[in-house]
Amino acid sequence: MPNFRRLGRHLLMTHWKVRQTFPRKTLQAIERAISAGEASHIGQLCFVVEGALSWAGLLKGLTARERAIEVFSQQRLWDTEHNTGVLIYLLLADRSVEIVADRGIHQKVGAREWSAVCRQMEAAFQKGEYEAGVIAGVESVGRHLRRHFPARDGGTNELSDKPVVL
User: For the chain, how many structural domains are there in total?
Assistant: First the structure.
């Protein structure tokens, strides 16, 4: 049985609302935070915001976690030299944050730590503080990456730091 409340939130989430919540200046600030963090570690961080799920996803009851795993694969975050790709995924209609980490970093940082970062971000979103919430999340993920995968000479930025809006 579909969750009609969730269905309504997703149907009412337009691309315009996503852009209103994440205007260009906010996306640029997030990109700067990712770039600054990646200067201190060899991890590859990607932030993706998706307004709403497709009809098919909604009808089959796709969770934010399941969609985040799909997006992790689509963004090729598993294809980094040191297996340190990390996705911060926001499903805006649900205000749900998921972090998916490649095996290299997931072995060092467990689900409890990632969950704490997600809940911190969601708390900021509850107050309407989207830019601050994402940047705080990026910085928290960066601290974990810096601890386990500090920067090395000659490290390269394998993936774009630009936030992705789906």
Answer: 1
Q: Provide the residue range defining the domain that includes 111.
A: 4-151+160-165
Residues 56, 66: contact at Cβ < 8 Å?
Answer: no
Total-model pTM: 0.92
The residue to which tokens 């009809």 are assigned = 55
How far from 71 is each of 34, 47, 98, 123, CA to CA, in Å? Answer: 18, 10, 11, 23
CB 161 within 8 A of CB 30: no
Structure tokens, 2 = 């579909």
pLDDT tens-digit readout, 35-81:
999 888 888 999 999 999 988 888 888 999 999 999 999 998 887 77
**What are the structure tokens assigned to 48, written together?**
């993706």
| 128: three-class secondary structure by DSSP | coil
Dihedral-angle region of residue 32 (phi above 0 means left; psi in -120 to 50 means alpha; beta otherwise): alpha
> Rg (Cα) of the chain, in Å, rounded?
16
Structure tokens, 54: 């497709």
Residues facing 96 on adjacent strands:
91
Strands (E), 25-158: 44-50, 85-91, 96-101
Look up tokens 């749900």; give the residue: 96
Write the DSSP symbol of residue 36.
H
